[in-house]
Amino acid sequence: MRNRDLLESFNRAANGIIFCLRTQRNFRIHILAAVLVLFFSLWFHITKEEFLLVLTAIFLVLVTEIINTAVEVTIDLITQEYHPLAAVAKNVAAGGVMLAAIIAVITGYIVFFPRVNPLIPKTVETIRNSPIYLTLIALGLVILVVIIFKTGIGKGLPFSGGMPSGHTALGFASSTAIILLSGDGLLAGLALFSSLLLAESRVEAKIHSPFEVIIGGLLGILLTLLVFQLHIRLG
């Protein structure tokens, strides 16, 4: 159907974006990542040229994800049966999203890492000599809080399903402790990347929702920071 006027064309375009938000989990994840990146852009006061690169990377990922959704919906409309060419079309569209995500990660690294790296030694200098047992205390506290949460909510086992994600909480608690104790930018990045992969795997396996994973990650980070900060204040 043709659009009757310019306003209707805008409404149809907006409906397409809303459809992706409502039905596509990956699109929602990309939106959340975009919000976080924009927040850090303001926080670090990046230049106009860098901000333009960041925006280009963000919209490239979102546009390719929308095109991928359009391809999938079209193929599902044409055929309900498995066909090798249909699988190829979906895989190619997904590959486009992956390439866009890779260039977005590279852009983020080039823009933000030079600003983040000098802050890490300054942030952890006062706590990097903290006793190693603080990490065990933090992990134990995370486990206890996760169990309390799931007992209160009555959903899921301590480390299988439910609110929040116990695996993600422990993963981010461990990476936070590594960051605080090492003070090394590269090691911190690898630890954080490993935690993000763990969180993504819990969502991909449909054991947890993105919200449960986010809450688990925040829980692990905040509780670990709390333990180290209390050691500083009381020590």
Outline the structure in words.
The chain has 2 domains: 111 residues, Helix Hairpins, CATH 1.10.287.3610; 115 residues, no CATH class. It is built from 9 helices and no strands. The chain has 235 residues and is an all-alpha fold. It is globular, with a radius of gyration of 21 Å. Helix 3 packs antiparallel against helix 4, helix 6 runs antiparallel to helix 7 and helix 7 packs parallel to helix 9. The N and C termini lie far apart (71 Å). The model has no long low-confidence stretch (mean pLDDT 80).
What are the main properties of this structure?
Helix Hairpins, 2 domains, 81% helix, 235 residues, mainly alpha
List the helices and strands and how they pair.
Layout (H helix, E strand, L loop, with lengths): L5 H18 L1 H19 L4 H31 L5 H33 L2 H6 L8 H21 L12 H17 L2 H20 L5 H25 L1
Radius of gyration: 21 Å
The overall strand count is 0
Report helical residue fraction. over 70%
Poorly predicted sequence stretches spanning 5 or more consecutive residues:
none
Overall average pLDDT: 80
| Class based on secondary structure composition and strand pairing | mainly alpha
Sketch the topology as an H/E string, one letter per element. HHHHHHHHH
Shape: globular
- Give the helix tally: 9
Characterize the largest beta sheet: strand count, sense, and whether it forms a barrel.
none
